[in-house]
Amino acid sequence: MSIENIAQSLEIELPDSYKQQIMEKERWLKLADAPFPYRHYKVNDDGNIYISQQCIADRNALLFEQFQYEAEDARVNTDTWCVGVWVKVRAVINGKEHSVRQYGVHTISKLHGEAKPGGDALEQAIKSAVSDGMKKCSSWLGVAAHIYRGEVISIRANRDKDGQPQSRFYIQNLEKFGLSEYEYKYGIPVLPDSFKVFYEKMGWTDGIFYSDVFDFRDKHSVSRDESRKAERNQERSEEEIGSENPAFINEMQANYLRSLIHDFNENAQERDIVQAIIAYLLKREVDVVKEAEDLGKRFTTVDALPSVHFTSVHRYFKQLRKTRLGNTEEKSA
Fold first, then answer.
1. What is the DSSP code string of 270-310?
2. Distance between CA atoms of 103 and 318, rounded to whole angstroms?
3. Within 10 Å of residue 259's Cβ, how many Cβ atoms?
């Protein structure tokens, strides 16, 4: 969404000189936040998406006229064996200097049975914390900001204490796309469909997108009639996204909610997830079915969730996933 569109919606007239500045800034931010090659997206052991420091540094070198950083003394929390460090970045963009300060963190690796980690582990953790701080600073300047907005999601492996993947959905997609379990040990990155046009123009053919993953799921877990219905829902969702209706959550948010449920229940169908949302909001004395109808939709698909409830439902699903996966680990132990 551009500043000019926001100004028009608010009926605010922008001076031509200011419009030009805004256009230049928006063009630069698009370059900074352009998608990376698929191989650069990784999943860490917590199931979160990240891009390596070197890839971020390469993008910074292309974008910034000058880029410098300085790190303060690291702090070590011996209760959690976690390192934290403040990192400050100074960057020159179009002749103007910008300064950003962010806090980088990293957990110190400790061998099983060790009371405290060794010196090499501490040194490596400090370096990783500095890298984390630099990447956060870069994101505040626009570089790979889509990672921190949660636009790229992961199909988590959910490995047990013996290192075996517990998610059948993860295993199915490894087989579907011919991926190496070693290379995608903790999860499979899934890109938003909005990246497809950019990938095609760049000649990149190895991306895995939302529609690839969820189409695959439909073919294996629902009947033909339900599959056709899911396709029609998807087409209708895409049309509504094109019209930028802010009253409802967008495709990315809907797929994210689905992925949270599929992490611990890969057999959950669309109606199951919708019913879970309805039941949760009823406990909060919210009639989401009526709200959706008042806004012009029937609440029969996840993407018909009114956007005002996304944050609370998202938090509830994350807690539900944590609880269910914790119970599964206890049983397997």
1. HHHHHHHHHHHHHHTT--HHHHHHHHT--SSSGGGSBGGGH
2. 24
3. 20
Tokens coding 41 = 């997206």
Q: How far apart are CA 152 and CA 36, in angstroms?
A: 11
Distance CA 157, CA 34 (A): 27
Rounded Cα gap, residues 153 and 189, in angstroms:
6
Supply φ then ψ for residue 102, to 5 degrees.
-140, 160
**0.70 cut: is pTM over it?**
no
With contact defined as beta carbons under 8 Å apart, do 49 and 69 qualify? no
Q: Are 194 and 152 in contact (CB under 8 A)?
A: no
Q: What is the pLDDT of residues 207-258, one digit of tens each?
A: 999 988 875 444 444 344 444 444 444 444 444 444 444 788 888 888 888 8
- Tokens 């969702």 map to which residue? 237
* Pair 125, 75: CB distance under 8 Å: no
pLDDT at 261 over 90: no
CA distance readout (Å), 94 to 61, 66, 67: 14, 10, 12
DSSP 205: -
Task: Write down the pLDDT at residue 113.
Answer: 65
Q: Which residues contact 169 (CB under 8 A, 6 or more apart)?
A: 155, 217, 262, 263, 266
Do 222 and 269 form a contact (C-beta atoms < 8 A)?
Answer: yes
DSSP letters spanning 82-112: EEEEEEEEEEEETTEEEEEEEEEEEEPP--T
Which of 54, 128, 123, 124 has the alpha carbon at shortest distance from 87?
Answer: 128
